[in-house]
Design goal:
With 142 residues, the chain is mainly beta. It is 11% helix and 29% strand. The protein has one domain: Rieske Iron-sulfur Protein, CATH 2.102.10.10. The chain contains 1 helix and 9 strands, in the order H-E-E-E-E-E-E-E-E-E. The termini are far apart. InterPro entries: Rieske_2Fe-2S, Rieske_2Fe-2S_sf.
Length: 142
């Protein structure tokens, strides 16, 4: 009976998860394939070796990919502002040494915490990518 209860509970939990929630689905940001391989030994990624280090690459993603060393793990987000349809101003801006990314569109201005990908000013959170690490290599994908 106990095993049946556990099985039922796990099934309910898995079925109740939905990709249509604000945490996962954003009508403004399309899904684009991404596969990045970052070697931390390369000089261009040296800031990522230290907690709080942030690097933005513009070669993949919708508006590029933001990668941050949180001190305990690496997190990756798309650099597109999630609050509105894509337009010229919808690339997030990060000031050196800051852990917040800000939407620079005049009618927005929402700030996002790069450690969490969330904002108090925004309906949507940042588009998150999967990050895995093997030695000094970081792999980002979706």
């Amino acid at each position: 009976m106990k095993k049946l209860f556990i099985l039922f509970s796990l099934t309910f939990i898995f079925l109740s998860c939905s990709k249509d929630s604000n945490n996962y689905y954003n009508p403004y940001l399309p899904d684009v394939p991404i596969q990045l391989d970052i070697n931390l030994d390369w000089p261009e990624y040296s800031e990522l070796r230290h907690p709080g280090g942030v690097h933005i690459t513009h070669i993949q993603g919708i508006r590029g990919v933001i990668l941050i060393n949180t001190g305990s793990t690496y997190r990756a987000y798309d650099a597109a502002c999630p609050n509105h349809a894509l337009r010229d101003c919808s690339t997030l801006e990060i000031k050196k040494g800051d852990i917040f990314a800000k939407c620079v569109c005049p009618d927005d201005g929402a700030a996002f915490n790069l450690h969490l990908g969330t904002s108090l000013d925004s309906e949507y959170q940042l588009k998150t990518y999967r990050v895995s690490q093997s030695g000094n290599r970081i792999f980002i994908s979706n």
